[in-house]
Amino acid sequence: MTEDEIHAAATDLLQAEKMGSQIGLLSLKHPGMTMDDAYAVQAALMTAKLVEGRKVIGWKIGLTSRAMQDALKIDTPDSGVLFDDMAFETGGMVPGGRFIQPRVEAEIAFVMKAPLDGRVTREEVIAATDYVCPALEILDTRILRSDPATGQARVIVDTISDNAANAGIVLGEARHDPRLVDLRWVGAIVSRDGEVEETGLGAGVLNDPVMGIVWLAERMGTYGQSIRPGQVILSGSFIRPLECPPGSHVEADFGAFGQVGISFG
Fold first, then answer.
1. Torsion angle defined by CA atoms of residues 166, 167, 173 and 175, in that order, rounded to the nearest 10 degrees
2. In this predicted model, what pLDDT tens digit does every residue of 141-181 receive, in sequence order?
3. What gap in Å lies between CA 191 and CA 195, rounded to an integer?
4. What is the pTM (predicted TM-score) of this model?
5. Residues 96, 26, 139, 85: what is their CA dihedral angle, to the nearest 10 degrees?
6. d(Cα 94, Cα 100) in Å, to the nearest integer?
7. Are 115 and 107 in contact (CB under 8 A)?
8. What is the pLDDT of residues 91-112, one digit of tens each?
């Protein structure tokens, strides 16, 4: 993609978010689009939001499960940017109309106390982490899930361009030292409107959620970015996304690890 095409795609996505609408698949408009192109669109979108006064509070990792990677015919996760206007309090309410097609995933969040840059080890990630906590990620899509004319589904370059489908984060109040918890065995029972919809374990995230942060630090290094102290990292979902139409209430019970919930107006 040319610089003009990258800028135009980012502008269209930003406008779609503001208007609560969706644009067509970028993968159809730009058949030769690469993952580098997609991250360039995401970076242009980030720049536009920073110019508007938003602040980066962290990063998200997506597509960490084997099932999701197989579905999109890829062998790598993706990542997106968390902004300050994406944070919601646990037990709070998302205003009606805030999102287009919201969905929710359960994850383990890492809150950092030291920087990570480029290639790092698992031990270095744990040493740089202030604490881990239960979290929900709110997903949304500013790109159609499929093209109405051809039926073609969105692919990885569409998702990455659309900030890895990120829309919001909800952090639980419980805090844990990652040195004292085997995150592979941290699990959650996720309910919507009082009915259990999904269960999962941290091992569903690259066999170890810490390894998601290892992957992210290296990926960011290739694009001249790094993880900074105080930032929140969503390590990846271990459940399928739950659709959340207006009136939905989602609760994730992580047992001794804590609880986190959100409602949609």
1. 20
2. 999 999 999 999 989 999 999 999 999 999 999 999 999 99
3. 5
4. 0.95
5. -70
6. 12
7. no
8. 999 999 999 999 999 999 999 9
